Amino acid sequence: MKKLLLLVFAAILVLSACRRQSGDPQEAKWDQKADSVLKLMTLEEKIGQMVLYTSDWDVTGPTLRQGYLEDIRNGHCGNIFNAHTAAYTRKLQQIAVEESRLGIPLLFGYDVIHGHKTIFPISLGESASWDMAAIEKSARISAIEAAASGINWTFAPMVDISVDPRWGRVSEGAGEDPFLGSRIAEARVRGFQGPGNDLSDTLTVLACVKHFAAYGAPQGGRDYNTVDMSERVFLDTYLPPYKAAIDAGAMSVMTSFNEYDGVPATGSKYLLTELLREKLGFKGLVVTDYTSINEMVHHGVAKDDAEAGLLAINAGVDMDMQGEVYFKYLKKQVEEGLVKESQVDDAVRRILKIKFKLGLFDDPYRYCNEEREKRLVYAPEHLEAALDVAKKSMVLLKNDNHALPLKRGEKIAVIGELATSTRDLLGSWKAAGDWNFMRPVLDEIKAYNGENNVMYAEGCKKTDDDRSGFAKALGISLFADKIVMVIGEDWEWTGEAASRTSIKIPGVQTELLENLSKLNKPVIVVLMNGRPLDLTRENELADAMLEAWYPGTMGGKAVTQVLFGEYNPSGKLTMSFPMNVGQVPLYYYAKNTGRPIYLPNDKYKSKYIDSPNEPLFPFGFGLSYTSFVYSDIKLSSSELTANGNIKATVAVTNNGAYDGEEVVQCYIRDLVGSVTRPVKELKGFEKISLKAGESKTVHFEITPEMLSFHRQDMTYGAEPGDFQLFIGGNSRDVKMIPFKLLP
Ligand code: BGC
Q1: CB-based pocket (< 6 A), ligand 1
Q2: What is the pLDDT of residue 377?
Q3: How far is the centre of ligand 1, averaged over its atoms, from the C-alpha of 289 (Å)?
């Protein structure tokens, strides 16, 4: 019966001559296909396509709705999230295809953020690799495993820029920088949707750029809080990664919970229609975040859910995630003439087009193959890639007196609850990741260094203040050559709804470190956390510090290989690490202010009386077991013409004893603008590997486009004048050369 209907669709498709006129012939073809289905649908069925409910297999927000199976059956729900495995999604798809009147297949969404089964490091960690190929591969593998488990839509990439480590969701993003964030957004879209954006390939999933827009700037770092920023800051700093992801072909966008300029994003016509569709040219589907239509009542812009629904549909929202608002009110609103049926049709057309593009009308079960799932999930090459990315994401923050790398056979005391945890290795948004499958840091260190050379004591927990384990930790450390203390945050202390007012290491972990440091043995701190932390005290106490983030399924092994020098760390921070929470927000692309700190007077300048201005570790910072020296910069010309380019060249030499990788970073400063300009802006980077003693030259091409911004009159472009160009291994330690942009 249902197959018959599909044939009917096909016939109508052939008969429907180019009724809809779309500029793009490819798009027109998809429009026609979607219209062939749309014609058959009742208003109720159309609204059903605009509904997305959780299966509650995984809980990612408040549960509102029971009985979603019945909703699928009677055409009231066209999309499901938080359901996975080939078997379960097949069961649900069967209800949609075999038991609903029209048999329209379901979309299956899930938060596959940094892996599906094979979990990669948290996104902030991955960003610290500055390795676009590795990040793309991680997204590719995540897509392959998710698609093999019945999923065809991931709620990623999350591309929200943030400069506030109190916000728990910085762990999901790519850090503070719009340029790097944009490159990473593109890499992730390519990874999820495949390099050609061919959704019909069963190894790809639909990407969803989120959270549109400016969600990363909640006041006080408190999740879901008010966002208030100038349009200029929004357009120049927060918007670029969303735009980059859309330009890379991402075909869905998720709205954000926050308001922008006084209007909640989910009801913002400016954001969702004028900016997203008209200016950015986005053609895909817009889904809300979890119940964000309903939340407009709490925001105080709608008196009830029905009114909130009107705001959403009029703003340009196609699909209601979990809110039941379209389901409950939209039909009546259309019947009463409050919403035009053509608005509903436009939304449904966009949704159906995606389903066609995914090939679901050709074969609704194409993602539900259990044999394929078994073969692809946890494939050895996926685990290998997860190990590779985990190593590349780690950042060596300190290494005095060559405390690292450890030598095989040294007696090592391993301390800390996090050394034995597997759950924490996965971080938040672990999708279907299974921590029982994994080995913790301690087991991997033992496996590498020999059981007899490794002693362990928990010492203390991650969060409470019980000191009763201190004595044992100190006792075993007396017999060790070196102490490795694994400390940080519980995984649930980062991610969504996990904002903090302190960014210190919780509990008594630092107190134990103070005690251990008195033993006069090298103490190496391995950090597991999802945000920049205030590590001022730890930096004083430890000989070496390795930022390991939450490194994923292969994290234990990755930490071990880095500690023992099997891999030379190459990660660089993508968020500044403040000295204390009071400096927040702190970011390298700050403005100079009218009273910069370098002025000679002591008092009346932009500074704190109780803290330096600088971060403890700047953006772009990360050490290696080797060291790199930068030559002076050479420019092909010191004058850039309006249509020209200049080439900046620098030689980088590995003058240490180990082979290593370096992220060469290129920044600029516009010295005089019609509006104030940041003291530095990242404009290019290249990750190179250098054998011990080897030198390489690195080039960056500078174009006027790279110097563009929203000028005082809000037009976009560069302004002629004096610039500085900086190249170095982090945003602080750089070489500088001046140049001019000619009129
Ligand atoms: C989060 C989104 C997520 C959604 C679905 C929301 O609470 O903000 O990032 O995609 O839940 O799980």
Answers
A1: 60-61, 111, 155, 210, 289-290, 496
A2: 97
A3: 6
Q: What is the structure's pLDDT at 58? A: 73
**Cα–Cα nearest to 533, from 549, 514, 517:** 549
Burial class (CB in 10 A: 0-12, 13-18, 19+), 445: buried
Residue 191 CA, distance from chain mean position? 13
Say how far apart CA 137 and CA 192 lie, in whole Å: 9
Burial of 677 (0-12, 13-18, 19+ CB in 10 A): buried
289 is catalytic: yes
Ligand 1 atom index nearest CA of 61: 7
What pLDDT, on a 0 to 100 scale, did the predictor assign at position 601?
86
d(CA 494, CA 98): 42
- Nearest C-alpha neighbor of 160 from the set 231, 65, 258, 67: 258
Distances (CA, A) of 59 to 55, 66, 106, 253: 9, 13, 20, 21
Taking Cα atoms as reference points, which of 668, 15, 104 lies closest to residue 352?
104
First-to-last C-alpha distance (Å) of the chain: 69
Instruction: For residue 163, give the amino acid letter.
Output: V
pLDDT beneath 50, residues of the chain? 1-21
Per-residue tokens: 146: 């998710």
pLDDT digits (tens, 9 = 90+) for 101-151: 999 999 999 999 999 999 999 999 999 999 999 999 999 999 999 999 999
3-state secondary structure of 87: helix
Answer whether 536's CB lies under 8 Å from 580's CB. yes
The gap from C-alpha 582 to its chain's centroid, in whole angstroms, comes to: 25
pTM: 0.96
Using one digit for the tens of pLDDT, what is the confidence trace for 283-341? Answer: 999 999 999 999 999 999 999 999 999 999 999 999 999 999 999 999 999 999 999 99
Percent of the chain with pLDDT over 90: 94
Question: What is the token pair recorded at 32?
Answer: 């026609």
Give the H or E element holding residue 726: strand 721-728
d(CA 217, CA 163): 7
CB atoms near residue 374 (< 10 Å): 12
d(CA 665, CA 732): 11
Residue 701: both structure tokens together: 């091409």
Mutate to test the pocket of ligand 1, among 206, 290, 320, 322 (most ligand atoms within 8 A of CB): 290
Measure CA 46 to chain center: 33
Distance CA 642, CA 742 (A): 6
Take atom 10 of ligand 1 and give the residue whose Cα is closest.
155
432 phi, psi to nearest 5 deg: -95, 15
CA dihedral 21, 23, 24, 25 (to 10 degrees): 40
Complete DSSP assignment for 463-506: SS---TTHHHHHHHHTT-SEEEEEEE--GGGSSTT---S--SPP
Rounded Cα gap, residues 322 and 401, in angstroms: 55
Give dist(CA 718, CA 24) in Å, integer.
32
Question: In 593-680, which ranges are E strands?
Answer: 628-630, 634-635, 639-640, 646-654, 660-670
